[in-house]
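Have a close read of this protein, sequence plus structure tokens, and explain what the tokens say about the fold. Thanks in advance:
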Amino acid sequence: MEAQKTLLRSAQKECFNEEGRKSLKNFQVFTDNDGILRLKSRIANEDELPEFIAPLILPPKHLVIKPLIEEEHLVLTSMQELPFF
């Protein structure tokens, strides 16, 4: 998990430098305790996971991000195949 955080921070620094931050100007962005950029959302339900309430910002074209998304997709897809009962 710490390795993923390090990769995310690195990718965000590369893609959202001063020039890249301009693409985020219409959003409420903050840095979490792990140094990862996140969006402030309108969702404020305390029962929800913090990752849902304040999603992290993924640089769409970064080479490190695509495999992370694919891995998560595979995990979630395989979970859907499990029997409900």
